[in-house]
Design goal:
GO terms for molecular function: transmembrane transporter activity. The protein is an all-alpha fold. It has 19 helices and four strands.
Length: 554
């Protein structure tokens, strides 16, 4: 059996290489895979999604993603007929771990350092040099996410057309280019335009990170893997503080805030080149793996709730998504979680400096903040691992969010510097919550079209929250920003309500389906895997994760 020493998580429909097979029999009737074994009454496997690799590509088509060949899909299906050697699986998974996790972790560190450069630049005089007044600084914070939200859908559509790792690498390279360009800004208008374009190229980051994780790692492994790379936003914050401290000591006629953009931007672009060379785009094209290892990578995911990525638009799934209350709860979750994020990522250093710390002390105080974030993420992963048999992920999310409410309350209502600083650190607990939130969205939506739209709903909420958040920090209230901190506290409290509402949306259908299966209705058997493009509502075998313990996990 494949190793499963991690946590229950999400099906990997985002997997562009998971075009395993089109197991349809009798002119389109849904074909099931019982107890993770492939069956076909005719004895033939129909591979509807494959590519004829015998014909060389020409022109721009050479840049497009390659689907697996029919031969590769056939070999995977044959492997699925037998149990894999656990030793062989472990060896392959070890190779995948050391190839992908460090790369994605460093990517995410840069991703977060990039987002906080404006905050550090403000410490080093950007507001004065660019003559920013009133809401100008908030505009610079928010315009990034305006570009993000405008390019989110086109960027994600392109993600489905190009090799995934290469596409991410190109976007990271462009982050760096436009970050360096921000260091050359001469006025407010320059910075607005460059921040807008930077937001566009970062719009694909989270979806690409999640897609790569879903492509290479199993359902049980994915929350742990996501936790590892996501924890590096804490590393990014801590490292950003060190970089800021070093930049503050550069003796030059060039203002320190310009070095902040130039140095970090150059590092991003150089790393992107390395990543584009090293990371494979899909199992069937991975030069770092033997043919047998490629087969094992895909076959070991046979136990996931998985349906074939047909890359087609289904209107019925669109309508179901619009009628599903969870779609709107995902949007609200993204919004309420990121109103505070948009505020603290851009105003956090200014709030700390307002506690009578110097600029250099403020940069250094970001190091324990980043370390605490990483610690909380690892703790959330560990506790989730200990409690995964009880499937109480939503309860864990709500409990950790309470810490952030307490943190903002300490910042708003206490006067002592120490208690306000501790409160600021506690607000970093929210990062652990978002790791688990990503698993909820991906793991509880079936159907290719519906999953794309549901994922879009939470990320649209993410963008909206980051756009709105900075405007709650009024320039007239600097450096305490009392109104903004109260808004953040209330937003976190609302997030708890949304999480508990989602829990109900998972518990009720699960109990109903488990009851019907217990009464003898085989249509609700959770051990039957469906390889057809069906939604979580259409697929009666589907069970939601993050809530009541269901039969599928016994």
């Amino acid at each position: 059996m494949p190793s499963g020493n991690a946590i229950d998580f999400v099906p990997a429909d985002l997997d562009p290489a998971a075009d395993l097979k089109d197991l349809e029999a009798n002119k389109g009737e849904t074909e099931h895979v019982e107890h993770a074994s492939v069956k076909n009454e005719e004895g033939d496997l129909g591979f509807a999604i494959s590519e004829d690799n015998s014909k060389p590509r020409t022109g721009l088509r050479r840049l497009l993603r390659r689907n697996p060949s029919a031969e590769f899909l056939r070999e995977v299906a044959e492997a699925n007929e037998h149990e894999l050697d656990p030793v062989e699986v472990k060896k392959v998974e070890r190779k995948l771990f050391w190839l992908f996790v460090p790369a994605l972790a460093i990517d995410y560190a840069f991703y977060y350092i990039d987002k906080t450069t404006l905050s550090y630049a403000a410490l080093f005089g950007l507001k004065q040099d660019l003559n920013l007044h009133g809401t100008d600084y908030s505009n610079l914070s928010s315009i990034f996410y305006v570009g993000w939200i405008i390019w989110a859908i086109p960027g994600n559509l392109l993600m489905g057309k190009f090799p995934l790792a290469k596409y991410l690498s190109v976007n990271i390279f462009l982050w760096g280019v436009f970050l360096m360009a921000q260091g050359a800004s001469q006025n407010y208008g320059d910075m607005v335009g460059l921040r807008f374009v930077s937001g566009m190229f970062e719009a694909v980051a989270d979806p690409c990170f999640v897609a790569l994780t879903g492509m290479w790692f199993t359902r049980k492994q994915q929350p742990t893997i996501i936790g590892y790379w996501y924890s590096f936003n804490g590393v990014g914050i801590a490292f950003g503080g060190l970089i800021g401290y070093g930049i503050g000591h550069i003796g030059s006629s060039l203002p320190s805030w310009r070095y902040e953009f130039i140095i970090i931007g150059a590092a991003c672009s150089l790393w992107a080149i390395f990543m584009g060379i090293v990371l494979p785009d899909a199992p069937h094209t991975a030069k770092w793996l033997t043919r047998r290892e490629q087969i094992v990578v895909v076959s070991r995911k046979r136990h996931d709730y998985h349906n074939v990525d047909r890359r087609q638009f289904k209107l019925d799934q669109v309508l179901e998504t619009l009628k599903d209350p969870k779609t709107y709860l995902y949007f609200l979750l993204g919004t309420f979680a990121n109103i505070p994020n948009g505020a603290t990522s851009n105003f956090g250093t200014l709030v700390i400096k307002g506690l009578n710390f110097s600029t250099m002390q403020t940069t250094l105080l970001q190091i324990p903040y980043g370390a605490f974030i990483a610690f909380m993420i690892y703790m959330a992963i560990y506790v989730n691992h200990l409690t995964h048999r009880f499937n109480v992920r939503t309860i864990l999310m709500a409990s950790v969010t309470v810490l952030t409410v307490v943190g903002f309350a300490m910042m708003a209502f206490t006067k002592q510097t120490a208690s306000r600083l501790i409160g600021y650190y506690l607000t970093g607990s929210s990062n652990a919550v978002f790791v688990l939130a990503l698993s909820l969205v991906s793991g509880n939506v079936g159907g290719v079209t519906k999953r794309v739209l549901a994922s879009a709903s939470i990320f649209l909420g993410v963008a909206l929250g980051n756009i709105v958040g900075p405007y709650s920090f009024l320039d007239s209230e600097a450096p305490t920003y009392h109104t903004g901190i109260i808004v953040c506290m209330c937003s976190r409290a609302a997030e708890i309500v949304v999480i508990l509402a989602l829990r109900l949306c998972f518990v009720i259908p699960n109990k109903s389906r488990d009851k019907k299966f217990a009464e003898g209705d085989e249509r609700y058997d959770p051990d039957v895997q469906v390889f057809e493009d069906m939604t979580d509502k259409q697929n009666l075998h589907f069970r939601y994760v993050g809530k009541f313990r269901c039969l599928a996990q016994n």
